Amino acid sequence: MRKKGQIDWMITLLPLGLIAALSILFFLLPEQSNTVLAKVRFFLGDTFGVYYLAIGLGVFLLSLYLAFSKYGDIVLGEQDEKPKYSFFAWGSMMFTCGLAADILFYSFAEWVMYAADPQIEKMGGIQEWAGVYPLFHWSLIPWGFYLVLAAAFGFMLHVRKRNRQRYSEACRPIMGKQTDGIGGRLIDLLAVFALLAGTATTFSVATPLMASAINALFHINLDRNAVTIVILLITCFVYTYSLLHGFRGIGFLAKLCIYLFFGLLAYVLLFGGQTRYIIETGFSSLGRMIQYFPTLATDTDPLRETHFPQNWTIYYWAYWMVWCVAAPFFIGSISRGRTVRQTILGGYGFGVGSTILSFIILGNESMGMQMAGKADFIARYAKDGDLYGMIIAMIQKIPCASLVLVVLLLTMIAFYATSFDSIALTVSCYSYRRLEEGQQPSKAIQLMWCLLLILLPIALVFSESSMSNLQSVSIVAAFPIGMVILLIVAGFLKDAGAYLKEIKKK
């Protein structure tokens, strides 16, 4: 039986209050607040860009070291313990918690956003590079963030059996008693604040696409905001129902999402009309990404000729760092019984592999139409800037477009619901001062967070400027989060090293 005193209301309500206050401020003073945040965001990205890039590359290289060194043999649990979930169930939950429905939006559209960028022309052209950068920005380094921290959190939860499921607890090997003081409280407040800010803006990217798909599917022209709110409410119901049924519900929804996702990819690949182009261009883009990976990962554009790293790569790394508050905790919790090596390499195999397939198939389907002269998506985007309408136009050129739209809608709802399952579960754990091994947050706390996580996006759906501002808040929050990530990594290496010595003595 959980006592009321176990709830940490400061960690629970203060970040939420700050986000709500900022939302009101952004709504009442959109121009002034946007100007201030844009300046702060530009300062961090332009002046400290190397900071974000160095952390991203460093974490990726560390993931390889952990996987192939002595640390890779550590079992996240008892030494002879077997994995709790099958590889497919584990991979499905991991992939869907780490990437919301945004992956479908960006898979279709990202190459178009790069196509007119001076960087693409400088590097060699659309055919050579427009399909490379999406693979780079969504594969190895992003998943490196997730998997290194997942190993650290899994070690903390299943090996050291810590009963405080928080960012600060992972810093304890370095911070010591300071973890229970002001330093630890600040880390946890920052983590929940960043999580809520990132969560509140996630729907801003893909839900308008879902609304546009519904309008196109039923040949209607309903108000996009009204349709978006209905979609948000349906998604909230799905992920709340799933979460309250525990990991069994989350696992079922994740596997359903994966079936829909790969079914969509298979249909587009086989029947979209661009099969040969998709395979050949995708193969070339993947090879080019691997060949030029060190260059792409360290490009700072010091003369600011195109500002591409500042506009895209640094932005992405910062956004992934903010999302590291929730996804790695969930991945770590479901990785019980796996070794650090299995967690990292399995994560790269399932997570990166699925992500790359999505961008190669969906992105090259439309880029193939563009290069063959069957459509001009670049000109359309340059004319009206409507990415959502452009994606619908892309899909409508695929045979049985209505079927594709239905599967797209169902997949996006499943993606969002599964992602928010993991977020709601993580933030529910944050609400407790202590959670013993195997203990879950009460259903009342989980329900509270399920509702709170959806209210802010609904409140903000009417104000595009507010969404943009909150995205900037997320990016700004990534600056201190990066420092915390370094603390967690250092703490994991120290504690795991000590653990290996303990095992040797036995």
Automatic annotation (TrEMBL):
<feature type="transmembrane region" description="Helical">
    <location>
        <begin position="444"/>
        <end position="462"/>
    </location>
</feature>
<protein>
    <submittedName>
        <fullName>BCCT family transporter</fullName>
    </submittedName>
</protein>
<feature type="transmembrane region" description="Helical">
    <location>
        <begin position="474"/>
        <end position="493"/>
    </location>
</feature>
<comment type="similarity">
    <text>Belongs to the BCCT transporter (TC 2.A.15) family.</text>
</comment>
<dbReference type="Pfam" id="PF02028">
    <property type="entry name" value="BCCT"/>
</dbReference>
<feature type="transmembrane region" description="Helical">
    <location>
        <begin position="343"/>
        <end position="362"/>
    </location>
</feature>
<keyword id="KW-0812">Transmembrane</keyword>
<feature type="transmembrane region" description="Helical">
    <location>
        <begin position="87"/>
        <end position="109"/>
    </location>
</feature>
<feature type="transmembrane region" description="Helical">
    <location>
        <begin position="314"/>
        <end position="331"/>
    </location>
</feature>
<feature type="transmembrane region" description="Helical">
    <location>
        <begin position="256"/>
        <end position="279"/>
    </location>
</feature>
<feature type="transmembrane region" description="Helical">
    <location>
        <begin position="140"/>
        <end position="159"/>
    </location>
</feature>
<keyword id="KW-0472">Membrane</keyword>
<feature type="transmembrane region" description="Helical">
    <location>
        <begin position="48"/>
        <end position="67"/>
    </location>
</feature>
<keyword id="KW-1003">Cell membrane</keyword>
<feature type="transmembrane region" description="Helical">
    <location>
        <begin position="226"/>
        <end position="244"/>
    </location>
</feature>
<keyword id="KW-1133">Transmembrane helix</keyword>
<feature type="transmembrane region" description="Helical">
    <location>
        <begin position="403"/>
        <end position="432"/>
    </location>
</feature>
<feature type="transmembrane region" description="Helical">
    <location>
        <begin position="186"/>
        <end position="206"/>
    </location>
</feature>
<dbReference type="InterPro" id="IPR000060">
    <property type="entry name" value="BCCT_transptr"/>
</dbReference>
<keyword id="KW-0813">Transport</keyword>
